[in-house]
TrEMBL record:
Coiled-coil region list: none
NCBIfam families named in the record: sigma70-ECF
Domain RNA polymerase sigma factor 70 region 4 type: 86-124
Protein name as annotated: RNA polymerase sigma factor, sigma-70 family
InterPro entries hit by this protein: RNA_pol_sigma-70_dom, RNA_pol_sigma70_r4_t2, RNA_pol_sigma_r3/r4-like, WH-like_DNA-bd_sf
Top-rank lineage group of the source organism: Bacteria
One Pfam family cited in the UniProt record for this chain: Sigma70_r4_2
Lineage, highest ranks first: Bacteria, Bacillati, Bacillota, Clostridia, Lachnospirales
Length: 145
């Protein structure tokens, strides 16, 4: 009889531990997401704040500088130095030069695939295929690090 009580006691202890662990994990998750939501500013609010504070010109200036940074490959390397996410940075650094340019021109500069294909002297289909294959490669690299 005592063995049964000991077994139930151990099971109850583990169940209590598991419930506490799950509860604490949920609390951490909620706190983290609340913190993120508090830090985010809706687009409408940020546009209003820019107009009110006169910082809209400043942000446009920063965007122009970022676009100019990505014009040639040396500047792409400078931009890589600004990336804080270590996994992303490691994955990007493993890419060949053409893929780095393609990713930065498409994502940072917002260039069309036609523009990218013309700059790299490749067919547009190859630019599209290379872009999406590179994204897959980056995702895989970041998952498996």
């Amino acid at each position: 009889m005592e063995d049964k009580n000991k077994e139930f006691s151990t099971q109850d202890s583990f169940s209590a531990y598991l419930k506490t662990a799950v509860r604490n994990t949920k609390i951490k998750y909620i706190k983290k997401h609340v913190k993120i939501q508090e830090a985010e500013i809706p687009i409408e609010d940020s546009a209003y704040a820019e107009a009110e504070s006169g910082q809209g010109d400043y942000y446009r200036h920063l965007e122009e500088q970022a676009s100019r940074l990505c014009e040639d490959f040396g500047d792409v390397e400078q931009l890589l130095n600004l990336i804080e996410n270590e996994r992303l940075l490691a994955a990007l650094m493993k890419l060949d030069d053409e893929r780095k340019r393609l990713i930065f021109w498409r994502i940072i500069n917002g260039m069309s695939f036609e523009e990218i294909a013309a700059r790299l002297h490749i067919p547009m289909k190859k630019a599209v295929d290379t872009y999406y294959n590179t994204l897959k490669k980056l995702r895989k690299e970041m998952r498996h690090g």
